[in-house]
Write a structure and sequence with these properties.
Helix content is about 60%, strand content about 10%. With about 550 residues, it is of the alpha+beta class. It folds into 4 domains: about 100 residues, no CATH class; about 150 residues, no CATH class; about 180 residues, no CATH class; about 70 residues, no CATH class. Helix 14 packs across helix 15.
Length: about 550
């Protein structure tokens, strides 16, 4: 991007922001006087939407700026640790409703990726896209090899330069925000842009998405709760993903689900179980479960099955995070706020010098009024949000893996209650968590650990006598080496002591000779110098042995 083009794009972005009145985001502070003065100088650009709330104006502005900014808004909606609810809730409404690009151009891109005419591998290619989003769009075809119906997801052509140019401008704006906005230290705008850049560039690599889909499909192989389409890796590339075509009912189409005779209660409960299975059993969860990516199979509506799509964003948790998260949730179920506070400190999520009593009281103040309502009326996801917002006041460090988890949990709970408003997520999740915890501690956990390690020890058992002999022999050799090193060390210390003694005597004799010579004594100065030189020679020899 040339300097002129960059200035032109920056003006376009600034104009859109001012037309939606986003300068209202600047707080009243002496450090924001210059930006506000600069805003007044652009008097011909007025706020055209003064009647709309600030959060809605921000969402509409991002939609106007194009796909890169839409994706950025979607990412920001997950950072509820950084933004107030009236902003984050509006950003969560952003959808990838982007106009498709020419199907003929998509065909050329696919042929370039495969290195030959598309008809070599596929039949019935439909140039009219099935779906279009900010990063890629999807076309249907039939695989000639086996007659399977497939979808071809292709990255938008020339999207990378657009992304790089807009991200460069985002960095410039973030640095200005850091300089002029008082809360910039907490919002960390440069770090937010860096995280967004990584997420967006990861989504541009469709082989990465293919790997995620294969992993998730393997985790739920044979499951009647979740189906993951098959990926055809032989035809997939970094900018092309070929996947089995699925037929189902989009989860947002509640009327169609009811018309199909779907058991809505069971479907919503399965959503909760699938989510917690991904998190606690597999440590690998689909982190972009908005309605556009989730379908329900037509088959067997009495025992419905979920279908997942779009695996560009996944989350992982390590063993320690899973353990602390499960214990936190169970402590919430039992209203043990002291345990919640202690777990946050033990896990390192809040500083070790946090006053646990004050932290417990803050959590109790937020949560007790919520628990006065029936459990079925309590939003599990919003309780978690309240916890994070409370912990933020105690300098809780941002946990990226928990932010993704929080966003996904809100999606899952929202879907479940849309399908079955009486869903009691607490009642559904608690038995799962209690069972998982019972398998992590106690006799069952010990038996499981032994069983998991048994193949390893069975392989190593025949080698144990030889390993033991080698260890003992190496220990003996090591002791001999240590003894030799110690002897050498002591010898060196004695030699250094002798050298220091000889140097000291030699220096004393030479000084004495100088004094005698000054007093015009004839013979003794020569003898003293000679003796001093001899002692220095002995000292040098002792030092260099």
């Amino acid at each position: 991007m040339s300097r002129f083009s960059e200035i032109k794009r920056l003006y376009q972005i600034t104009a859109v922001q001012l037309r939606y009145g986003l300068d209202d985001l600047l707080p009243d502070d002496p450090r924001t006087r210059l930006p506000k003065l600069m805003r007044k100088s652009l008097f011909w650009i007025r706020n055209q939407h003064p009647d709309k709330p600030l959060g809605e104006r921000l969402r509409l502005a991002l939609q106007s700026l194009g796909p890169v900014w839409v994706k950025f808004g979607q990412m920001m909606s997950t950072r509820r640790d950084l933004f107030p609810p009236h902003i984050a809730d509006q950003l969560a409404l952003l959808q990838d409703r982007v106009a498709p690009f020419d199907g003929a151009l998509a065909r050329k891109q696919i042929e370039k990726s495969l290195g030959g005419p598309l008809d070599t591998w596929f039949a019935d290619f439909d140039q009219t896209p099935l779906a279009s989003a900010s990063i890629a769009q999807v076309h249907t075809a039939t695989l000639k090899e086996n007659g399977r119906e497939v979808v071809l997801k292709v990255i938008r052509p020339d999207i990378l330069p657009v992304i790089q140019a807009d991200i460069k401008l985002m960095y410039r704006m973030a640095r200005l925000l850091s300089r002029f906005m008082p809360e910039a230290r907490r919002l960390r705008p440069v770090e937010v842009i860096r995280e967004y850049e990584k997420t967006l560039l990861d989504e541009l690599d469709l082989m990465r998405e293919a790997a995620n889909a294969i992993q998730l499909r393997r985790n739920f192989d044979g499951s009647d709760s979740l189906y993951v389409p098959e990926v055809f890796t032989d035809y997939s590339r970094s900018n092309l993903l070929v996947m089995e075509r699925i037929y189902g009912i989009q989860v947002s189409d509640v009327e169609a689900l009811k018309a199909n005779g779907t058991d809505m209660k069971l479907l919503s409960e399965k959503a909760v179980n699938v989510f917690f299975t991904q998190v606690f059993r597999d440590s690998f969860f689909h982190a972009d479960m908005h309605p556009g990516n989730i379908f329900v199979s037509h088959k067997n509506p009495v025992d419905p099955q979920w279908i997942a799509l779009d695996f560009g964003i996944v989350g992982t948790l390590n063993r320690e995070d899973k353990r602390y998260l499960a214990e936190n949730l169970l402590a919430f179920f039992n209203r043990d706020y002291r345990k919640v506070a202690e777990l946050h400190v033990d896990s390192g999520w809040v500083p070790p010098d946090t006053n646990v009593d004050e932290f417990e009281f803050a959590i109790r103040t937020v949560c007790e009024p919520i628990f006065e309502k029936p459990l079925a009326d309590i939003s599990f996801g919003h309780v978690l949000l309240n916890l994070f917002n409370t912990a933020r006041r105690f300098n809780m460090e941002v946990q990226p893996q928990l932010v993704l988890l929080q966003k996904t949990l809100l999606y899952v709970e929202g879907l479940g209650r849309q399908l079955y408003p009486q869903l009691d997520l607490w009642d559904t999740a608690k038995p799962f968590l209690e069972d998982w915890m019972s398998r992590q501690v106690g006799p069952q956990a010990i038996i499981g650990a032994v069983r998991d390690k048994a193949p390893f020890w069975a392989e190593k058992l025949p080698e144990l006598p030889e390993l033991l002999y080698d260890s003992l022999r190496q220990g003996k050799v090591m002791n001999q080496r240590i003894d030799k090193l110690y002897d050498n060390f002591m010898t060196s210390r004695r030699q250094q002591a002798q050298a220091r003694f000889c140097f000291g005597v030699g220096a004393t004799l030479i000084i004495c000779s100088a004094i005698l010579f000054g007093n015009q004594v004839d013979v003794y100065p020569v003898v003293s110098v000679t003796a001093g030189a001899m002692f220095w020679l002995f000292g040098w020899r002792a030092y260099t042995k």
